[in-house]
């Protein structure tokens, strides 16, 4: 195996690539290498053509059977039946096609992360070329704001810092060093001598040798991972496919029995007899299959999606809505998901005193607490000077923008690079321009009452000695209105302490003793143990000899100016910063735990930082530990499975590690929701049972790989989405129970009539009317029932739970039997009591058959509409579920009753459906028979449980 590029020195890399470190490659050599290595672009898998996506919508087992029934109906002259079924099937296919056609564009978005142009040295001259034409060995030049166009090994890196959070998940810009050489297994985020495609330069400049282009880059590896992740059926899709197979199998068996019995019973198989038998079979098929079920599921999911949008969760794939309800693990990136991706000063140690700083990200409001009591920094001279010097020694700016608007986010491909505080509606938005660490210092100073603009007017900057990674510090000279000069320095604590000879205590400059130095080092260690990023601040008054001043110092090199200035400093204190957790996340994690859902943090950040945030959020306890990517590489498969089962925090992991963790969790039988916002999260987000992207800070790559997008980037929204997902699954069970009870009643009616050699109690067109019109609207209304109060106090259901689990099949058969018997009884009463037409046999007499079928139709519809209210809860009785909680259901039932009355009493519809007006006594019989099922169930409950209220304790006993 060849030595990794980050393990080689610059000269060694240049020799390996046959590149001149001064003149770069020749144009001729670049053309040759472009032919050899190909263009610097990301390749995608072949796009699935639209017509294949459309055809796939008709491959569902139940849809195929419906199309077969359509063909048979059309062949027998039942054109209206055939057209009705075709319309439903096509409508459902269009809904599915629209959803799927919008998906699968991850690699297209990934390509947008590539820079359009690049500056290189070729033939000894600086030229700008298309990023597509870069080749390994090119000598690349980068400046602040540049997006890195390829992977490269640094040759020069003065003051260079690069934003890599979209690739690694780490929130802070990484300081680069051309002289640094690492071990072979150093994680991606720690390779200080490397630049990677898609990252952005925030400070300094660099010269680097391109070592990988196109699909050979780290970004290309992610593109490969995205391609490798296939699409899996959601639990709902598996359940509905299973349901379809069962329904079709049952339908075929019943039809075969009826047709076989008829063939055996008839002595002569004449044309009319065969036609009647086929009509009976088609009627049974139409009765057995709930034609509207696929469309109702789609519509219910779509309505659920609209509710989730109102709660800031944007669902891209309808079938994923329900999957949320059975999630058992939420894997979350840390930066920008659990935390704000906004650095904030959390602690200060100044003049021997410790302070806690409160607040929310970049919002410049908060308190300074000493021993738990608020203090005014302006009354604390040591703290005041530390805040002023820290702000004056920073280049970042705090920007106040317009009030936040709720929306789908900016959608920028590199969304993570924008850092801003986005509160709720109507609040002012604050963002930082510049380095986030310096932004935290500016915000802390403003919390203390020192506005940056006022400070800069009072203390005019006259010289800056810039930060460099080798020096690990930055200095500025300011001049006050009286002509005095001050030097302000910030940097690594050990460096600043080494340059200090005094410290500020109680407003006085005093010598820095060994005891003071040890106290500072101890405090620095304590802050670091809390995963705080610690900076030290110092200052000293300056006086210049006659004829010298800042202008003369500006003419010196950085090292010379630093040697003259950065000595005999007055140590001011330590400032500890952290990317703080989102305030609402702790409650969301606790709510998820109550719902039986485990939260796992997967981040590219350092283990100490990850653990500190995880402990603060309650993801792990005090004894929790983090497993690093390097440790994962050492594990066997069985050890990986064990680690994933036990550990809640994974740190310093690569995109491949994230993918492994998600796959291991799925292997354990977990239903995994994976959140993410960076490009590094995209493969794992796509692999998860439900991938969740951040809408505001998320990259387009992750959004396209996801099934759901959080419009407000709020982890708490996930918990709300889980609640909706569970409610949606409950509602799907409700309308499956409702529709199949009705279909069972229809099948039983038709089957018993065939066995009893009676004419068809219901015509196929009447059954379609029931299944699609009078049943359809109430079923859809059931789909928007609000979640029950205890939905988030139940454990997640098993992903392999069948459609008829928890006695649902028994409830369907029991109520379906009552509906079927009532419907057939209504038909028999009318058939044997109504006077017929003289000289016409009752089996062929419309004067008998039409009123009898109308009574059967009315009984069937009314029984179903009464039953729909019983389907609203599997845990509560019909009288314990208030109608006011779902007014849409009341409206749907009223609409179905209206449709029934129109089909009976409006002549044009009565002619189509072959119905006849009913008399008052017939309606009385209809209502008695329709309500008999609910009355019997109510009596049974009262006998079994004594009183209705106790029903809540007998969840599984409900009929």
TrEMBL record:
Record membrane topology: Multi-pass membrane protein
Classification via SMART domains: Cation_ATPase_N
Span list, region Disordered: 403-424
Subcellular localization(s) per the UniProt record: Cell membrane
Pfam families, per database record: Cation_ATPase, Cation_ATPase_C, Cation_ATPase_N, E1-E2_ATPase
TM region(s), chain numbering: 53-76, 82-98, 246-265, 277-303, 735-756, 762-784, 812-832, 852-869, 889-908, 920-943
EC number: 7.2.2.10
GO BP terms, alphabetized: export from cell
Gene Ontology cellular-component annotations: plasma membrane
Gene Ontology molecular function, alphabetical: ATP binding; ATP hydrolysis activity; metal ion binding; P-type calcium transporter activity
Keywords carried by this UniProt record: ATP-binding, Calcium, Calcium transport, Cell membrane, Ion transport, Magnesium, Membrane, Metal-binding, Nucleotide-binding, Translocase, Transmembrane, Transmembrane helix, Transport
Entries under InterPro entries matching the protein: ATPase_P-typ_cation-transptr_C, ATPase_P-typ_cation-transptr_N, ATPase_P-typ_cyto_dom_N, ATPase_P-typ_P_site, ATPase_P-typ_TM_dom_sf, ATPase_P-typ_transduc_dom_A_sf, ATPase_P-type_domA, Cation_transp_ATPase_P-type
Catalytic activity of the protein: Ca(2+)(in) + ATP + H2O = Ca(2+)(out) + ADP + phosphate + H(+)
The Cation-transporting P-type ATPase N-terminal domain, residue ranges: 4-78
Family: Belongs to the cation transport ATPase (P-type) (TC 3.A.3) family. Type IIA subfamily.
Protein name according to UniProt: P-type Ca(2+) transporter
The species this protein was found in: Symbiobacterium thermophilum (strain DSM 24528 / JCM 14929 / IAM 14863 / T)
Upper lineage: Bacteria, Bacillati, Bacillota, Clostridia, Eubacteriales
């Amino acid at each position: 195996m060849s030595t990794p590029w980050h393990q080689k020195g610059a000269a060694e890399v240049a020799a390996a690539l046959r590149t001149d470190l001064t003149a770069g490659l020749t144009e001729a050599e670049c053309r040759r290498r472009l032919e050899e290595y190909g263009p610097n672009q990301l390749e995608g898998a072949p796009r699935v053509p639209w017509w294949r996506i459309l055809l796939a919508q008709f491959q569902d087992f139940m849809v195929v059977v419906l199309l077969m029934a359509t063909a048979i109906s059309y062949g027998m002259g039942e054109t209206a039946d055939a057209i009705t079924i075709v319309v439903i099937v096509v409508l459902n296919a269009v809904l599915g096609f629209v959803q799927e056609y919008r998906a699968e564009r991850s690699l297209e978005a990934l390509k947008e992360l590539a820079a359009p142009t690049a500056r290189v040295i070729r033939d000894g001259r600086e030229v700008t070329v298309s990023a597509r034409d870069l080749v390994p060995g090119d000598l690349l030049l980068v400046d602040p704001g540049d997006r890195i166009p390829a992977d490269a090994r640094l040759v020069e890196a003065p003051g260079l810092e690069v934003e890599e959070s979209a690739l690694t998940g780490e929130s802070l810009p990484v300081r680069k060093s051309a002289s640094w050489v690492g071990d072979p297994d150093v994680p991606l985020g720690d390779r200080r001598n490397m630049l990677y495609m898609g990252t952005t330069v925030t400070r300094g400049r660099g010269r680097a040798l391109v070592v990988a282009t196109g699909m050979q880059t780290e970004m290309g590896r992610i593109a490969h991972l995205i391609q490798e992740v296939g699409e899996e059926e959601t639990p709902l899709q598996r359940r509905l496919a299973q349901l379809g197979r069962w329904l079709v199998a049952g339908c075929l068996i019943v039809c075969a029995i009826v047709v076989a019995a008829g063939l055996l019973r008839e002595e002569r198989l004449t044309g009319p007899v065969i036609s009647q038998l086929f009509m009976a079979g088609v009627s049974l098929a139409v009765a057995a299959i709930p034609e509207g079920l696929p469309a109702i599921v789609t519509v219910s999911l779509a309505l659920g999606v609209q509710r989730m949008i109102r709660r800031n969760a944007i669902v891209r794939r309808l079938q994923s809505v329900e999957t949320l309800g059975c999630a058992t693990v939420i894997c979350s990136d840390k930066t920008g998901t659990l935390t704000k991706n906004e650095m904030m000063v959390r602690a200060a140690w100044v003049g021997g005193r410790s302070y806690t700083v409160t607040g929310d990200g970049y919002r410049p409001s908060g308190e300074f607490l000493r021993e738990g009591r608020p203090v005014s920094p302006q009354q604390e001279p040591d703290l005041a000077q530390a805040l002023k010097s820290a702000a004056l020694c920073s280049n970042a700016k705090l920007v106040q923008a317009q009030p936040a608007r709720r929306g789908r986010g900016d959608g920028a491909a590199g969304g993570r690079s924008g850092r801003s505080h986005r509160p709720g509606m109507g609040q002012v938005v604050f963002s930082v321009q510049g380095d986030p660490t310096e932004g935290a210092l500016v915000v802390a100073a403003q919390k203390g009452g020192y506005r940056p603009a006022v400070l800069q007017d009072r203390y005019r900057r006259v010289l800056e000695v810039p930060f460099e990674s080798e020096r690990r510090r930055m200095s500025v000279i300011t001049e006050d209105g009286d002509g005095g000069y001050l030097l302000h320095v910030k940097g690594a604590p050990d460096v600043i302490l080494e340059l200090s000879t005094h410290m500020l205590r109680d407003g006085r400059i005093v010598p820095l003793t060994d005891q003071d130095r040890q106290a500072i080092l101890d405090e620095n260690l304590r802050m670091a143990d809390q995963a705080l990023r610690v900076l030290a601040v110092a200052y000293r008054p300056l006086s210049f000899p006659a004829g010298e001043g800042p202008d003369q110092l500006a003419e010196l090199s950085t090292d010379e100016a630093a040697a003259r200035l950065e000595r005999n400093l007055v140590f001011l204190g330590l400032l500890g910063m952290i990317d703080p957790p989102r305030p609402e996340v702790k409650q969301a994690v606790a709510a998820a735990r109550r719902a039986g859902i485990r939260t796992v943090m997967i981040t590219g950040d350092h283990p100490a930082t990850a653990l500190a945030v995880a402990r603060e959020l309650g993801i792990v306890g005090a004894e929790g530990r983090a497993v690093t990517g390097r440790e994962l590489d050492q594990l066997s498969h069985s050890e990986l499975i064990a680690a994933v089962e036990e550990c809640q925090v994974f740190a310093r992991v690569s995109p491949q590690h994230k993918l492994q963790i998600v796959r291991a969790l799925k292997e354990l039988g977990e239903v995994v929701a994976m959140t993410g916002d960076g490009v590094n999260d995209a493969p794992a987000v796509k692999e998860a049972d439900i991938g969740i992207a951040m809408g505001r800070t998320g990259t387009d790559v992750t959004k396209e790989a996801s099934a759901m997008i959080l419009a407000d980037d709020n982890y708490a929204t996930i918990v709300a989405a889980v609640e909706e997902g569970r409610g949606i699954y409950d509602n799907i069970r409700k309308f499956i129970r409702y529709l199949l009870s009705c279909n069972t009643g229809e099948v039983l009616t038709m089957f018993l009539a065939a066995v009893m050699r009676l004419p068809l109690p219901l015509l196929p067109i009447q059954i379609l009317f029931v299944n699609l019109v009078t049943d359809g609207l109430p079923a859809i209304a059931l789909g928007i029932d609000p979640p029950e109060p205890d939905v988030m106090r139940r454990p997640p259901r098993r992903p392999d739970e069948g459609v008829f689990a928890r006695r649902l099949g028994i409830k369907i058969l029991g109520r379906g039997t009552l509906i079927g018997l009532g419907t057939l009884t209504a038909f028999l009463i009318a058939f044997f009591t109504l006077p017929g037409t003289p000289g016409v046999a009752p089996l062929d007499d419309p004067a008998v058959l039409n009123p009898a079928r109308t009574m059967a139709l009315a009984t069937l519809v009314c029984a179903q509409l009464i039953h729909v209210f019983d389907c609203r809860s599997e845990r509560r009785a019909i009288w314990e579920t208030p109608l006011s909680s779902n007014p849409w259901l009341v409206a749907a039932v009223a609409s179905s009753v209206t449709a029934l009355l129109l089909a009976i009493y409006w002549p044009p519809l009565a002619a189509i459906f072959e119905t006849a007006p009913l008399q008052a006594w017939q309606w009385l019989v209809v209502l008695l028979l329709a309500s008999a099922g609910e009355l019997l169930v109510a009596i049974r409950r009262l006998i079994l449980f004594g009183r209705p209220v106790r029903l809540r304790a007998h969840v599984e006993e409900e009929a």
